Amino acid sequence: MDTTTDIIKVDKLTKKFNDLIAVNGISFSVKSGEVFGFLGPNGAGKTTTISVLCTLLRPTSGTAHVACCDVTKEPNRVRREIGIIFQDPSLDDRLTAEDNLRFHGFLYNMDRKRIKERIPEVLNLVELYDRRGEFVRKFSGGMKRRLEIARGLLHQPKLLFLDEPTLGLDPQTRLHIWEYILKMRQESGLSIFMTTHYMQEAEVCDRIAVIDHGQIVDIDTPVNLKSKYGESTLEGVFLKITGREIRAQGGESSWSQWMRRT
Amino acid sequence: MIGDFWAIYILWLRDLKRYWYDKPRIVASLGQPLLFLFVLGTALSPNFQGPANINFSEFIFPGILAMTVLFTSIFSAISIVWDREFGFLKEVLVAPVSRWAIVVGKALGGSTVAVIQGSIMLTLAPLVGVALTPIIVLKTVLAMALIAFAVSSLGIVIAARMKEMEGFQMVVNFLIMPLFFLSGALFPLDRLPAWLTLLTRIDPLTYGVDLLRGFMLGINTLPLTQDLLVILGFCLVMIATAVFEFNLAD
Lengths: 262, 250
Hints:
CATH superfamily of chain A: P-loop containing nucleotide triphosphate hydrolases
Helix content of chain A: 25-40%
Helix content of chain B: over 70%
Structural class of chain A: alpha/beta
Largest sheet of chain B: none
Structural class of chain B: mainly alpha
Shape of chain B: globular
Strand content of chain B: under 5%
Distance between the termini of chain B: 20 Å
Order of helices and strands of chain B: HHHHHHHHHHH
CATH class of chain A: Alpha Beta
CATH topology of chain A: Rossmann fold
Low-confidence stretches of chain B: none
Mean pLDDT of chain A: 88
Radius of gyration of chain B: 18 Å
Strand order of the largest sheet of chain A: 6-7-8-3-9-10
Order of helices and strands of chain A: EEEHEEHEHHHEHEHEEHHH
Oligomer: heterodimer
Radius of gyration of chain A: 18 Å
CATH architecture of chain A: 3-Layer(aba) Sandwich
Shape of chain A: globular
Number of helices of chain A: 10
Mean pLDDT of chain B: 91
């Protein structure tokens, strides 16, 4: 794979919501084929950054190039190249698993024969092929997540965004989900941009950016970060960089997530 | 762009599938119009003095069709708010699809479901004495489609601004009920005091009901071309507004 080109290039990106500065002039780049971790406490600006990179929010200032183009100038070209697994569920649970995938394929203007081939492929990858005809509302949280991963990969994106992909899942499911994602990465040279609160998961990243109060505090490989801050775990690094204070921002689920972790 | 047409198709198909999968809703949403048609229709018939040879049930039948279409379309369109709350809207918004295609696909889906519901009601026409010919059926379905598209677009305009389902009851009380009651669905338009006449002329559904009544019973109060032009104009304004709002939401 080509490691010399950047799949994401962000320059002095700022996003304000009225008076609140969610993201404050951040710059970074992600190389093609890289697994890039974006870590930070709740309310640090992770989801806002992802939303700008996936063309859902317009930046207040600064630029972001994703895959091929500028996210504000050619959003549709960017959208074609990326897959996203959102923090919150985004399936139509009144449709079947297969309906959801077919819907996605048509939205991405995939060739109809290709859709027919790809649906069993991605369903097999996440081990949901046998349940393809069932309504999504009957699925457990873990199955829904797996289906979302299958859907995010259906159109074979160059870059996959994972916003806390394993939030609220049991250890078995989390393990499986990482197996699928890393398998995909090996097979297709997919680049991955992920956020997570599970520091063990962040270990798979090639590089990690720690963001706090809308600014990037440090970017490096997991190994370098650990030696730089003199900690044996990423968790230690994370707490050292961002402090021990509990953040007020974030929804109910992220809150309980924190409680369980501390 | 070709991709946008496939997006319209799949958004439309999604609404139809959800409708088809939810059979109890198909039956349940016919309850209200049936109540109006048979209970109100029968109870008020003796006191009704309409155009010659037309009893009250026949008179309100086109109005009841409009009602069915009105309620079904607006509910379908407002499912956008559900989609937003349950996250599905994000899946649509990050797809490489133009905003106008999302709006049109949604409007077509909602209108198709509404026309199907209206057509089920239409099969009851002989029961209340409204004679149907193939031509009348065709014209009626077309009129229903036009009304459905107009109302769906209106629903999308509202849904694009609404962030939570809590606002929904307010929309029903302050918009849908006035739209329905002022439309002349249940009373003739030609014997009203000036203030009420004015209000009925502001209500876009008035023109839809008048169109249906003209096609089915031949007793329209306003010129049919005027009815058609007003509804078409309303469709265009609403669709344009909805597209504008969706582009803004970026």
